[in-house]
Amino acid sequence: MQLLKDMIVTKGRVDSEHILKVDGFLNHQIDVQFLNEIGKEFKERFKDQPVTKILTIEASGIAVACMVAQYFEVPVIFAKKTESKNLDAATYESQVYSFTKDRYYKIRVSKRYLGSEDKVLIIDDFLANGQAVLGLKEIVDQAGAELVGVGIVIEKGFQQGGKLVRDQGIRVESLAIIESMKPGEVVFRP
Amino acid sequence: MQLLKDMIVTKGRVDSEHILKVDGFLNHQIDVQFLNEIGKEFKERFKDQPVTKILTIEASGIAVACMVAQYFEVPVIFAKKTESKNLDAATYESQVYSFTKDRYYKIRVSKRYLGSEDKVLIIDDFLANGQAVLGLKEIVDQAGAELVGVGIVIEKGFQQGGKLVRDQGIRVESLAIIESMKPGEVVFRP
């Protein structure tokens, strides 16, 4: 998606070979007009799928998922990372390993909002090591729902997540795949 | 806002005199069509204000803030609760006291995205004890920006937050104010 690549080049900042900051438009300050274009693009790519729910994970996935959901006219569910007294006791749960924090954390979705009749599209801002997506997939499996695809805004193609998820037979659509990067330079996969 | 009151009565669940669960449409599963109506209502109420940024706090404020921002055509910024290597070192910070967890937590906004030229509208899903809104106000003050108002979806009128915030001269617009509640009954302030 050319608009996204342009945003990454003009407004993103590469701080090292692993850190791409897109906090000016995607995950701290959020450009909602831009996210509407992202929403249209995912709708175009998954228009063949009878999506009933969009699933994401707090916190930075929520904005993208909500803007995308407008084009599918379905609800968003975001998996919670923290214990909350506002969450039902009956939940689907999975463990997600965080490489950056070197620990596992639990994600939860209330059983009330996901069931065997659902066709689920997972949406997230980044795909790097793939652990969050695989954790969300496990929740979809527990619900007996069908995972129809995964929509990612920015995939770090130099990390193993994309391969891990696609090797499970899951359809992944990434709007930009970064092959390599260093300060001042981002190389996209054609 | 009648539509919101109807949603609370038909889809909300009162688990005790303090816990109102609206996780079916507002803060776990998100009804984006409904949030669009919320967005229009806030735009109508604050149409006299030259808003340049919408400020909220992760996680459950993000969805509301993004949907509202579409009607103001301005960016959203969400304050982060957790340390993140994706956040700039230069941040505005404030301490927020959590009554439910009985501890202080820090919230942060990058200095890059808020400045003295900004007119800020704070948006959040709930107003209860008011600590989150006051923490966000402190960040607006640190930036030298102007706080033009606070838009709240559901205010718990039986807690002190609304009074605390309004006593500081801040304009608060709550789309539904709950006077009292118990299982099976929600009484709204007229």
From TrEMBL, chains A, B:
Pathway note: Purine metabolism; XMP biosynthesis via salvage pathway; XMP from xanthine: step 1/1
Catalytic activity: XMP + diphosphate = xanthine + 5-phospho-alpha-D-ribose 1-diphosphate
GO molecular function: xanthine phosphoribosyltransferase activity
Binding site for 5-phospho-alpha-D-ribose 1-diphosphate: A128, N129, G130, Q131, A132
E.C. designation(s): 2.4.2.22
Localization: Cytoplasm
EC category name: transferase
Domain Phosphoribosyltransferase per the UniProt entry, residue ranges: 36-157
UniProt signal peptide: none
Pfam families given in the database record: Pribosyltran
Binding of xanthine, residues: L20, N27, K156
Record keywords, A-Z: Cytoplasm, Glycosyltransferase, Purine salvage, Transferase
Principal cellular location given in the protein's record: cytoplasm
A Gene Ontology BP annotation from the UniProt entry: purine ribonucleoside salvage
Gene3D superfamilies xref list: 3.40.50.2020
CC annotations in GO: cytoplasm
Subunit structure: Homodimer.
Family: Belongs to the purine/pyrimidine phosphoribosyltransferase family. Xpt subfamily.
PANTHER family: HYPOXANTHINE/GUANINE PHOSPHORIBOSYLTRANSFERASE (PTHR43864), XANTHINE PHOSPHORIBOSYLTRANSFERASE (PTHR43864:SF1)
Free-text function comment from the UniProt entry: Converts the preformed base xanthine, a product of nucleic acid breakdown, to xanthosine 5'-monophosphate (XMP), so it can be reused for RNA or DNA synthesis.
Protein name: Xanthine phosphoribosyltransferase
Highest classification ranks of the organism: Bacteria, Bacillati, Bacillota, Hydrogenispora
